[in-house]
Amino acid sequence: MSARLPRARPAAPRLLDVRIERLAAAGDGEALLDGRRLFVPLALPGERWRVRLLSETRDALRAEPVERLEGPPRATPLCPHFGTCGGCSLQHLPAEDYAAFKRARIQEPLERARLEVGSLLPLVSAPPASRRRLRLAFVRDRGGLLLGLRGRRSRAVVAIDRCPIALPELEALLAPLRRELAGIELLRRARAGELQLTAFAQGVELVLLATASADREDRERLAALAERLDLARLALAPEAGGEAEPITVRRAPSLRWGRFVLEPPPGAFMQATAAGERALQDAVAAWVPAGARLVDLFAGSGALSLPIADRLARLFLVEREGAVVEALARAVAGCGRIAVRARDLERAPLDARELAGFDAVLLDPPRGGAAAQATALARSTVGLVVYASCSPATFARDARILVDAGFRIEALQPIDQFLFSAEIELVALLRRGHAPRPLPA
Q1: Which tens digits make up the pLDDT trace of 387-398?
Q2: Quick one: which of 166, 172, 265, 246 has its CA closest to 208?
Q3: Would residue 335 show up in a list of annotated catalytic residues for this protein?
Q4: What's the pLDDT score for residue 58?
Q5: CATH top-level class for 100-127+270-432?
Q6: CATH number, domain 133-249
Q7: Prediction pTM value
Q8: Cβ atoms of 98 and 125 closer than 8 Å
Q9: Residues 14, 17: Cα–Cα separation, whole Å
Q10: Which CATH superfamily is domain 15-72 in?
């Protein structure tokens, strides 16, 4: 009988001392090690850290911070959960460096695309305690129900009882909501899932994304929960996507754009903060001339175009989500200068013929951008485009298409809605005015 070989012990995690040189696009500290980039969360430029190597590829390495050895002063984080919660990544970054990082998130993709901007406007930032939408996760374990945000680069749930970036009415719901949800049988069956809280003038809407199906008893319990927490509306949505089902509507949430009042379906997209929304609306109002024939593509609830609808010659709103389109149609009923259509612009962009009746276009696509629509715009006779984007990289890609067709980026407004994250939004004015490059047939 052969002797059993001893089991090999796993190699101990490798400890390294590194100096952080810059902030990477995701907000992690970046160092160089043997010609490869090494990413360290929560580390800042100028700091020296002892780190534990976690993973490596041919081009990059990832590490976790172990000990800060030296470095310049840091900002004091606002939140006791900072560092474990994945919602914020930059609360420790001093204010001047923070603003410079946000500007660089826009400037670097523009430089890579060789794009020039006529006027880069000052950064508009939403204040703390202004976030009106929270996406939370929950999981049931032996200790009960955990409700909070995902951890850094993790699916684990970090329980939170404070969120200084959220509106006070959302923060105040965290503790009672956790207690109430712990007793809901539907969530006992689901064991894990997500939910979305949105603050309206009429109160807070709760949308549960549930994997388990709800019976009549579940619905009654949820309606009673909405009563106890004084929620405006509570709805259930399938986790895999699809329209949310209202369980109870105690006060119908509504949005007012000028003289138009829209009642959005549960879970409908809204800008993260009122301050960010106003900055976008102000730019659109300043850049779209009175009397314009405007088409609003990826229109959402019409938040950017309906406020100026009364001074336009014509407004056409195009949006993919059918329930939102129905709500828009009800809001603008009887106004002959405004039309609404449901259409998936990623698969079927408006072509040059359809755009011929308009002299201005408003674009506000999702993170993936609007490459197909930008190509159609490049072939059209439209002379003015206002482009709102939550992704500087896809904006730069699409803007390159338009600039090659004769547009120029006249102005760009950076907007920091997602405070203390690496995300940045922008709205830009592009006007056709110089000789285009030849487009491929």
Answers
A1: 999 999 999 999
A2: 246
A3: no
A4: 85
A5: alpha beta
A6: 2.40.50.1070
A7: 0.92
A8: no
A9: 10
A10: Nucleic acid-binding proteins (2.40.50.140)
